[in-house]
Amino acid sequence: MDSEVKFILKRVFVIDIIIAVLAFIISYVFYKPYDYIIIVGLILAAFNFVLNAISTSFILSISGKKFLTILISAFRIIITLCIVIILCGNDKFKYIAIIIGYTLHYIAVILHGLTIKK
What we know:
Elements: H1 3-30, H2 35-61, H3 66-88, H4 92-115
Helix pairs in contact: 1-2, 1-4, 2-3, 2-4, 3-4
C-alpha cells in the first residue's frame, strides 16, 4: 500500500475516534438505547474504508483483473449488510441509528479532505 494512502487512513482513523467519542456522548445522553448502534455503524464504515483501500491497492498492482474489483466490492457489501441485519433485526430505529453512524465516517473523510494543504 502506498505511504500516502497509509497517511490518509491514519488521519481519518484519528478523526473517526474523535467523532465516535462525541457521538457516543451525545447518543448516550439523548438516545441511550441506540448509543452502541451508532458506534457500530461508524466502525463498519471505517472497516469498509480500510478494506476498500487495501483491495484497490491490490487491484491496481495487478493488471487485467477488473472483475475482481466488482467481486471484492460485492463481498464487502454483503458482509456489511448481514452484520446490519443481525444487529438491527426488526427495529427500524436501529437501522436509522446505524445509518447515522455510517454517515459520521464520511464526515471524517470530508474533514480530512478539508485539512489537506495541497
